[in-house]
Amino acid sequence: MFHLIKLELKKGSFTGYIWGSLIAYLTIAGLMMIVYFVEGNNIEEPVFQGYTDMLHMIDLLVRATFIVYASVMISKLIINEFKDKTISLLFAYPVSRKKIIFAKLSIVFFWTFANVLLANLVVGALLISINAGVGYFTEPLTIHTLVQHAIYVLMQAIGAAGMSLLPLAIGMRNKSVPSTIVSSIVIVVLVCSNNLGFSISSIIAIPLSLAVIGILITYMSFRNIDRMDVG
Amino acid sequence: MTEIIRTNLLTKNYGAAEVVSGVNMKVRRGEIYGFLGPNGAGKSTIMKMLLGLVQPTGGEIELFGDKLLPASTEHLKRIGHLIETPIFYEKLSAKQNLELHGEYMGYYNKQAVEEALELVQLIGVHSKPVKQFSLGMKQRLGIARAISTRPDLLLLDEPINGLDPEGIQLMRNLFRRLRDEWGVTLLISSHLLSEIEQVADTIGVINGGRLIREVSMDTVHASTNEYIEIVTSNVTNAAYVLTDKLGIQNFKYLGDRIIRVYDTDISQEKLSKGLVLNDVPIEAINRRHHTLEEYFLGIIRGGE
């Protein structure tokens, strides 16, 4: 299995994915800094009530970004193989088709999971240190807040990774890259949109159950892959 | 086990359309089997079924003596293939594509990659992405990929498509060499008889999804008979001379200018002399073989 993952990364230039993620980190960090400096000292209507608020907003941006990012990866790793018919090469190899698909999906799942964690960590640490210097809000940062947020982010990362598979089932229907990416955007808009500080994804059960649905639907769409006609 | 491929009533339906129906084919070890039939006859579909890319609706396939099941993959290690248009990871170079192929096939031999590229004479293009290749180059690379893992069985679907005459010649020789030196069994499809007849040991004629006949080239050569063809502006007079003056009964009109004489005991000189002396105008006179083309057209038409 590890070998298959390695081969997938060889095909699709792994460095490209890393650059993509780095750019995403920078964009999120930049956006957060703009929000922080432009709106941060608005005393009447503060954009953040405190650290928890700020960290949640980071998490929301991170997840929205990487769910869409995952749909791009799904397009490259799976949809395009079907569209370019290279799947008929892959499926004529002495390797189980399920393993090939599983290798591809695990790349998407773990990449999304790891990036949600890492981006939260990096951008969160950056903003916390900026606030330590600038000090728009002076509420003390407690270990309790951090631990609680860490658990929250972990759950959300699992949720995002599972949810990121949802667009696959939609994109696979007509082997279309646009419909894969558009459906991921729709998911993000529904789940991650922020209404007066509330987004439905902040109820942790919702992203987690969507993740389960994502995994289930994906399983269903590839259950009969061994008997599927290709090419 | 002398048969590498054996199918038993192999059938494939797409909806109501029967693309392949009741095919019983046998490909023996170490032979070049030419799969001959017009476009859309079902050649590619059969090859895809052999590779497991398409699941048969009915019937069975036996490869290397084992029955093929939907999840079988082990036999694929021994098969090289090129089906329809050659497909590659276009951003990768020729060499990278071949190395990747080796990794998936579980065949690790860097030298084999070089050797395969050399055999198809694709040299000096190692770092160029395949995207920039011409169709002919892709076709060569596809064949190189198929042979790069030293397979026991090669499935090549229209392998000379897009090749220049020089390339066609090269491939013909390569196919023979693979058979003779490596002991590879080849299944080669084509809609062009002239391509197949020069390399094949056995020809399977397929039309409308049915395998009409499987015949060895030796048999084909034996049954393509000889005749003398006369082109004349006066066939009536010619026929009269043939029967009454020369005593030939076995001939046939082809249109109003051509007569074919199947009685080959009489020499061409004697025949032309006899005709000219009796004032039959002769435009042309030739000794000919009943062409393979006609032989196979006969089979295809007879099978319909």
From TrEMBL, chain A:
It comes from the Bacteria. This is ABC-2 family transporter protein. Keywords: Membrane, Transmembrane, Transmembrane helix. The keyword Repressor does not apply. It comes from Paenibacillus algorifonticola. The chain crosses the membrane at residues 16-38, 58-79, 100-130, 150-170, 177-196, 202-222. The keyword Membrane applies. Coiled coil: none annotated.
UniProtKB/TrEMBL annotation, chain B:
Transmembrane segments: none annotated. Pfam families: ABC_tran (PF00005). One of its GO terms (molecular function) is ATP hydrolysis activity. InterPro entries: AAA+_ATPase (IPR003593), ABC_transporter-like_ATP-bd (IPR003439), ABC_transporter-like_CS (IPR017871), P-loop_NTPase (IPR027417). Keywords: ATP-binding, Nucleotide-binding, Transport. The keyword Nucleotide-binding applies. Residues 5-233 form the ABC transporter domain. Belongs to the ABC transporter superfamily. This is ABC-2 type transport system ATP-binding protein.
